Amino acid sequence: MATEIRVPTLGESVSEATIAQWFKKPGDAVAQDEPLVELETDKVTVEVPAPAAGTLESIVVKEGDTVEVGALLGQIAEGAGAAPAAPAKQDNEPQAKSAGKADLVDVVTPSAGESVTEAEVGEWSVKVGDTVKADDTLVELETDKAAQEVPAPVAGTIVKIAAETGTTVEPGVLLCQIDPSGEGVAAAPAAAAAPAPSAPAASAGSSMPPAPSAQKMMAENNLSADQVAGSGKRGQVLKEDVINAIASGATAAAAPAPAAVARGPVNAQDEVREERVRMTKLRQTIARRLKDAQNTAAMLTTYNEVDMGPVMELRKQYKDLFEKKHGVKLGFMGFFTKAVTHALKEIPAVNAEIDGTDIIYKNFCHVGVAVGTDKGLVVPVVRDADQMSIAEIEKEIGNLGRKARDGKLGMADMSGGTFTISNGGVYGSLMSSPILNAPQSGILGMHKIQERPMAVNGQVVIRPMMYLALSYDHRIVDGKEAVTFLVRVKESLEDPQRLVLDL
Predict the structure, then answer these.
(1) 480 and 390 in a common domain
(2) Over the stretch 484-500, which tens digit does the pLDDT of each residue have?
(3) Which residues are catalytic, by number?
(4) Please, what sign has the CA dihedral across residues 246, 247, 251, 257?
């Protein structure tokens, strides 16, 4: 009996892939879950594991062919294969498998989600010799998107830590070993183990040739391999990398890599009081994305101010009743998010994005809410905020905020946003110019509420005022549209009844 090998689901909006390379040929013995073939999409490379142990009977598609999700790749004949490996667990669970000794359990790097191919080992919560219970946190892994805690799959004693803090690891790499009997002899600490090599950042040092679709696009644009930084496995250049390189202004002439900024003379006494700390993956990604946004978009900021008195009075009048009925406190973010969704419907360009020479208008509002954590800034997304009530928005923002602070945000929580709100006012900021969250075309900056003297009906009165800042991509949003958008937000907040009446 033969087992079919088919193209797996490759993620939202990905319907096809290119055969990058086969790891086996017909007649080879394969073990269950052993990688058979690597597929390449415009976003990520994916290894397809063997669904069963046996012998690779046939290969239906060759390297370079494009296949759709669900297409037949080949067949495995049962028998004559290697002993099957332990079944794979869910993507977000650490895999535990037999490790030579039947009584030892391997804890390996779990998959962190679509497009995440590596992680950095953070602080260990345990050391060799420690006793742990099932589901105790062992170590925290940091990716360029979020932090993820790895729990103990079984109770027992830590007998080996194989990956030091700061090591870059790929999914499936051994992190530590647990003796479930609790009697294991402590193995050598992480220092004795060779750290897993990190994937090369650029194609110049990659062991992988560019993906077929990337190679074709590079040839069409006269780009050389050393001009495109690869983000795939082992530094492989993907189609998305070439698109990003073209968008950032790469030309046929290779530009030299930027040199590190030279430090000036450092006094010896000062140097011993310095502390050098490696940037986390998340912080590196934040830095790169913010700089890319500045380099790519024609970014401009327009300002206005809003009298927060009406919203504050409404909160004061109904906050107790609101919390009693909905089980959540009535904050400012619900009003701002609702005001933003009303304005986005009137000015759709602010809710759109540029894709090459096309403009993509979004007929929905997925509003990102920037949240500061001790790991850095993350932007979880309130999906379909335009269809929510203020109470529903407040509940969702509260839930996402808790997940962000606990390091529990997943990829699905932070992808797909169409517009972003950043509240620097909680830290005391009076005025700032927020940077776009690419590929979005607009971001609203909220600030501190401060009482100021204002002229109202010919009289000077003290009012609780807030400065608003809208940064926008001038390539797609005109000044008139940006100013009108900000005025509509101001009008909704100064007259909250407009939100109720959908005006």
Answers:
(1) yes
(2) 999 999 999 999 887 77
(3) 474, 478
(4) negative
